[in-house]
């Protein structure tokens, strides 16, 4: 397994299988404690990070891009076919020992196809990947998983939905009122619920997501601060500089 890493993102889907050990996974504004016999996913452009990886941690990651699974899912809708590839659903969850064994076996068959360069290997890899996604989907459906693990209170449910919406739309929606409208609540109610659950305001959460994106761009691209300011839809570099100093 890859050791700890700060918030990052890529253009790939990521399918992780944790066989033993434990780690802390961050997806956007959400944080998860992941233990053995779990799977975790991230989607292209989604900010993710990994912390507190225990010494005995072992597992696998499989990366693939959207074009590779076009023939497996309705055009442009992998998140509709597989809920685990959807911002709005739960992207990390436990599986049974049998499910983990099946997923691992399929992943190792993919690795074998990659290494041996046999004819028809791309077709075979797609078939094994489809079976992996289907196995994970069936586990998801069998467990009737909620949007988020743990506390199922109304306030926690609302805040989780808010976090997921921010992670998906923060580049275009910057106001609390934008998310309150999507969630069919008032801005004051949304702020109050976020404050109750996280001890910060909804506006603070939106700013944190922007700061994460800015840090990823500063660390992993050659863009200047001015170019990042326009990439993040700030009116001018000075506004971005003020924001970044304030939030960090």
Description of the molecule:
This protein is of the alpha+beta class and 248 residues long. The longest helix has 23 residues, at 121-143. The chain contains 9 helices and 8 strands. The protein starts with a strand and ends with a helix. Helices cover 48% and strands 17% of the residues. The protein folds into 2 domains: 5-143, Regulatory protein AraC (Jelly Rolls, Sandwich), CATH 2.60.120; 154-247, Orthogonal Bundle (Arc Repressor Mutant, subunit A), CATH 1.10.10.60. The strands form 2 sheets. The protein has a 4-stranded antiparallel β-sheet with strand order 1-6-3-4. A 4-stranded antiparallel β-sheet has the order 7-2-5-8, covered by helices on one side. A hairpin with a 2-residue loop joins strand 3 and strand 4 (30-35). Helix 4 packs across helix 6, helix 5 crosses helix 6 and helix 8 crosses helix 9 (237-247).
Short summary of the structure?
The chain has 248 residues and is α+β, with helices and mostly antiparallel strands. 48% of the residues lie in helices and 17% in strands. The chain is globular and about 55 Å long.
Mean of pLDDT? 91
Radius of gyration using CA atoms only? 19 Å
* Count of extended strands: 8
Could you please say which CATH topology of the largest domain applies here?
Answer: Jelly Rolls
The proportion of residues in beta strands is 15-25%
Helix/strand order: EEEEEEEHEHHHHHHHH
Class from secondary-structure proportions: alpha+beta
Whole-number tally of structural domains: 2
Query: Share of helix among residues?
Result: 40-55%
């Amino acid at each position: 397994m890859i050791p700890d890493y700060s918030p990052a993102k890529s253009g790939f889907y990521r399918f992780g299988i944790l066989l033993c050990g434990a780690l802390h996974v961050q997806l956007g504004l959400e944080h998860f404690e992941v233990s053995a016999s779990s799977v975790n996913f991230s989607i292209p452009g989604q900010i993710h990070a990994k912390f507190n990886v225990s010494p005995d941690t072992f597992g696998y990651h499989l990366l693939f891009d959207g074009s590779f699974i076009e023939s497996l899912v309705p055009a442009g809708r992998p998140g509709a076919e597989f809920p685990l590839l959807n911002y709005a659903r739960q992207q990390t969850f436990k599986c049974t020992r049998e499910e983990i064994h099946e997923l691992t076996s399929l992943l190792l068959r993919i690795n074998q196809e990659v290494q041996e360069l046999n004819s028809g290997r791309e077709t075979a890899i797609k078939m094994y990947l489809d079976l992996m996604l289907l196995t994970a989907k069936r586990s998801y459906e069998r467990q009737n998983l909620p949007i988020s693990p743990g506390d199922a209170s109304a306030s926690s449910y609302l805040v989780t939905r808010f976090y997921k919406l921010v992670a998906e739309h923060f580049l275009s929606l910057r106001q609390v009122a934008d998310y309150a409208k999507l969630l069919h609540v008032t801005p004051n109610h949304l702020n109050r619920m976020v404050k109750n659950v996280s001890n910060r305001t909804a506006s603070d959460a939106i700013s944190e997501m922007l700061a994460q994106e800015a840090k990823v761009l500063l660390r992993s691209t050659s863009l200047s601060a001015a170019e990042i300011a326009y990439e993040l839809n700030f009116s001018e570099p000075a506004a971005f500089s003020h924001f970044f100093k304030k939030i960090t």
